[in-house]
Amino acid sequence: MDTRLLRLEAACFELLLERRDPAQPLWRQFGARSAAPLDAWPQGDARPTPPNALDVDPALTILPTHGLGWFHQPALAGARCGDRLGSGRDWCQDFRLVDVEADARHWRFTLEDPVARLRVRQHWQLDPGGDVVTTHVELENLGTEDFRVDWLAAACVPLPVHAEQVIGFAGRWSLEFQQHRETLGIATWRRDCRRGRNGHQAFPAVLVGSVLADDEGPAWGAHLAWSGNHTLLIEPLADGRRMLQLGEWLAPGEVVLRPGERHRTPDALLAFSDQGLNGLAAGFHRHMRTQILHWPAGQPMTPRPVHLNTWEAVYFRHDLAALKDLAAAAAEVGVERFVLDDGWFHRRNDDHTSLGDWWPDAAKYPHGLGPLIEHVHALGMQFGLWVEPEMISPDSELFRAHPDWALEMAGRDRVLGRHQLVLDLARPEVADHLFVRLDTLLRAHRIDYLKWDMNRDLATAAEGADHRGPAAYRRSLLALYGLIDRLRAAHPALEIESCSSGGARADAGILRRTHRVWTSDCNDALTRIAIQSGALRLLPPEVLGAHIGPAVSHTTGRRHSLAFRAAVALFGHLGIEADVRELDPAARAELRRWVELHKRWRSVLHGGVLRQGRLPGLAWVQATALDGRRALLAIYRVAEDLGRHMPTLPLRGLADQVRYQVRAVHLPAVPHGREVAPLLTALAGAGLELDGATLAALGPPLPPLPPESAVVIEIIAADGATQARAIALE
Questions:
Q1: Mind telling me the catalytic residues?
Q2: Which of 144, 374, 425, 488 can pair with 479 through a Cys bridge, CB separation 3.0 to 4.6 Å?
Q3: Which tens digit of pLDDT belongs to each residue from 684-710?
Q4: What is the distance between the alpha carbons of residues 682 and 381, in angstroms, rounded to a whole number?
Q5: CATH of the domain at 120
Q6: 617 is in which domain, residue-wise?
């Protein structure tokens, strides 16, 4: 065994370093595990020095720094900020390894630079399932003068020469998680977010590979568990490889370490799969389920309750009798959690006022929220409530009492967003006030769930009594984390949703504290297919709010059938965002059938293996039980194409020798259709019996799909199909 080599051995990949004590370890591998012996690997950096180069041409280490021959992006950038003569010193660092703890699943490195008087600790941990490596970095100031940190990468890892394709995530409000494929070239690929929250424009993750196919080929993934500003970058190196770095974007002067102080980066989550994008997603989903999500009272996840959210049903028009009728109609179609959205609190009749005044509006709720909450619980549903605690309206009782609590900058113009300002949560008195307000609501009523919204970017976010000090993005986010942690500790049974104008704050950092994210304010089913596809690359479906909206979309004005809207929403945490009172009896019965279908399959949808992909004009998603005996498949027509017949869709994850009952639980009506083939007639009736090998080679027969329609197919092991359909609803 070569003791120079350090390995983290995951299920299907490895991270490999070479020790060069006392110099920093060199990166050798991040990718597929190799069976080849590496004992004969030349020690150290054995590359010949190229012409017209420095005598020392550094290779990639675990913490490359600028100033001694490394001309690529440094993993640490900063300098002393002492007096006039001392300011700017120690910008050049040369860290040496002084301690290492390492085994097959864990690394801990301690590096020091005695000249710059800095210490770095790197922590690397492979999760128990062998899916994801979590790493972070801690910087300590050992000097006698302050040290300003401008950049500290949470992870700095190599990518091979053939990793030439990248998927980054971008978007806007109501169009989040859009996947953008690019070919990496000679320039650095970089994505920054400076909005104080992830933002619709910048989900903090990146996927890299050689082809980035659905189910084949090597794929690397990186995700920053942080809900605020961030940077992702991929830079080509002189040896043909590429370097991936990710970390928190820091505003100038935002992190200054006094003597003896430390700065810790957010966690970076790193993964690899040789089974393409779906293999990579499966690893991230398992990691989220086992290592990130913390369900109430430390218990396992209970079946995710079907929601009705009142926003697109009533908006600000709150009337107790009407809301009781809406709750009764929701219970009738199978809803399990009724969430009262914006408009319930003091003088809140539009979005111009009242944020911060978290008590029931006396005109709408003369006896408080109690009568509605009791009615909802009497119907057998949980009760949820919308709040936006981080915000304050200039027209509010709170602002009139404490105008200095808002993040405004003295001498600068006021920057409003949705007619609101942001509270300075990092001030203890502000966080205490919000805790008391929320705690009072939760103690006065049986509120099972908070929909925690945050509807604007941070602009003038600065520390100090006059808010002209250093930028306060980081401390605001840490204060938010602390407030949620405090609230959950006081109310262990409470569930919380992270909503931020839709999906502007959805990441592993916020999901360590919450149980659901609102994927998008857009409920248009056609648009939602791409939104959910991007989010599912990293996040499991049980945390992604997916609602059946009204027939006419609130955000796009497009009209879709109930079946298409429901078929898209099935593959998430299902909800309804519509006024079910307006549905005729036939539509209510159809909606109830879709809710029942989701309940019948949610143990698979929310605990199985999810795959997805694209075919010409089509998108598809498949959830398969861990034992391979049940699967639910949906295929969506997203655009017309030139094919005269439906393509084949081979299905993975099933057992070759097992015979399955394959049955369509929904087929769309086909205009101008001719006689349907006998196979499709059987598919729509009692179903077909096919073995797993056939389904893996050819897939099920597929009907023609008109534009913006879906087919939903259930696949159940034949020896258990009858019993499975007879199982009572959860």
A1: 453, 521
A2: 425
A3: 888 999 999 999 999 999 988 999 999
A4: 38
A5: 2.70.98.60
A6: 611-726
